[in-house]
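Fold in tokens:
===
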Amino acid sequence: MPKVASSLPLSGLFALAKPSGPISMSLVNQMKPLIMNTRLFVEASKLDNSQTQQKQKKGRFSRNAVKIGQGGTLDPLADGVLVIGIGKGTKHLTSLLDCVKEYRTTALLGCETDTYDSEGSQVRVAPWKHVTREQVENALEQFRGEIKQAPPIFSALKMDGKHLYDYARQGIPLPRPIEKRPVTVHSLEIIEWKGSDHDFRFPEKKFTEEQKQAVARAMNGIKDQVRVDDEPETEVDNAPNVAPTAFVLKMKVSGGTYVRSIVHDLGHAVGSAAHVVTLTRSRQGRFALEPTGKDDIGCVAWEVFAKAAENPGEPDADGWLEWERKVLDKLEIVEGKEQSGK
């Protein structure tokens, strides 16, 4: 293991291949007992003491435990690259928040939700049968380059000390329009037109009329009004069981870009509605699910940590566990040795 030639413990960055479903921090918390009890990242002389203190504090790690952080959370629905910083590597996570990221996302036409993805509730449905691939291709042009993007009304961002979603849920008028943020979309293209050949469907949860009216009150007087009214399909429905059109987008964007907002706004741009049904972060800076360049770094599968948490196995001839070897193989070492407790 050439990376261990230098003195231990190490500090660094590595990418986890997050699965769809759990929230990012829950995965980080599940990894902590492993990270906090390996000589890769903690001084060997403090390991036993650290383990004892952790048990006594019922999961609260001692001040001598190494620092661990993440470089940009992923929604529960999303999977893909989640960068983890260990020790002094946590100081480098900020730069990864602002770096260029790449995503693949599947958009489903005909319905928009409060969260702009399939985890949310239906807010409105709209016609989708008129939308062609050519129309979507043409509409994509307005979302490329330097654009201004408004965060969703149902987001955790605050305005005058209150979350935006609280305004929407409680029907409290926004004091002013939601400020649009400048972002850069370096590239944006359709890589697959699924049409109706898929198993995606609209969420079963729906907004009640009362909830819709609350959103309308919150947005009262705001220029870019959020639409909550359903629009019936205008085309004759000769095949009622046909799935709404879906397509896959690939994009390269600056930090702070809302992929869900691009899909939501694109639905409006083609005279329909849309929400995200799959979302994969395929690259964050030099960390990638599928490394292609000489400086690219691959990801450690989540299953590696899940397996080690259940049964870490036996050390090899050099004294390393399987999960430690896999992490070290993908680890970008930062500033050499990390001094625990500093």
Notes: The longest helix spans residues 44-56. The chain has two domains: 2-99+286-337, 101-284. The longest strand covers residues 181-195. Residues 50-62, 337-342 have pLDDT under 50 and may be disordered.
